[in-house]
Design goal:
There is one protein chain. The protein starts with a helix and ends in a 5-residue tail after the last helix. By secondary structure, it is an all-alpha fold. About 2% of the residues have low confidence. The protein is built from nine helices and no strands.
Length: 237
């Protein structure tokens, strides 16, 4: 096995390792943001996509490390096993990407419906939930799920929540859910929280997509290199 080929595989696996670390970091950032919205976005028993991505990222980190070891040991069996695992991972990434593209609208609908159910509980027995909605609306400068008029359905008295107010003071929310947007936006935020959260997460999601695309290219090169080196190797496990 040539030193150059061996070094090439080592470098490729180091790149896999590095990209895996990047995936873990980006997924962790999204999960951190997601935790801020946990009362609005999560339903009991459902594992979020960022957590799945985080697990995959950790697997990629371990795989890149093992790939480096396989390149150093020059084991044909190890290299073939490594190439097979990377191929399976690559196929899984492609399938996951296709599913996310195909069912993205359905996923958004599920999230919006979940938020609708949560917002309808505003002002109920769960005081922590009520405070959480107010805080998120204030922090993200949003009101309602789709827009401020949702509160006319949720509260049914024409008011919005105090979290919608640009300046939180007595009476700032009175009757605002039924006012035209031109009037309402003078006192309250009018953008829906679903779209505010979507915008807040968009940058990290795009970065994660770019990193995954780079990873796919590196994986194809690693598979090709590992298979070529395995054929030349004189070491068998």
């Amino acid at each position: 096995m040539g030193c150059i080929s061996k070094a090439a595989l080592f470098v490729l696996n180091f790149l896999v390792f590095a990209v895996g670390v990047t995936v873990v970091v980006l997924a962790s950032l999204i999960i951190n943001k997601d935790n801020s919205y946990s009362n609005l976005l999560l339903t009991q028993g459902i594992v979020t996509v960022p957590i799945i991505v985080l697990i995959v990222g950790l697997a990629i980190v371990i795989l890149g490390f093992l790939g480096c070891c396989g390149a150093m040991k020059e084991s044909s069996c190890m290299l073939k096993t490594y190439a097979f695992i990377v191929a399976v991972l690559l196929i899984a990434q492609i399938v996951l990407g296709i599913l996310l593209l195909v069912y993205s609208q359905e996923a958004e609908n599920v999230i919006k419906n979940t938020m609708d159910d949560v917002f309808k509980r505003y002002g109920g027995d769960d005081e922590a939930l009520t405070k959480s909605i107010d805080q998120i609306e204030h922090d993200l400068e949003c009101c309602g799920v789709s827009n401020y008029t949702d509160w006319n359905t949720f509260i049914k008295n024409g008011d919005v929540t105090i979290g919608c107010c640009k300046e939180q003071k007595d009476g700032c929310f009175d009757g605002m859910a039924t006012e035209p947007q031109v009037v309402a936006e003078q006192r309250i935020y009018t953008q829906g929280c679903f779209y505010a959260i979507k915008e807040d997460l968009q940058g990290a999601v795009i970065a994660l997509g770019v990193v995954c695309l780079i990873l796919a290219v590196v994986e194809v090169m690693a598979i090709s290199c590992a298979c070529g080196l395995a054929k030349k190797s004189r070491h068998y496990a």
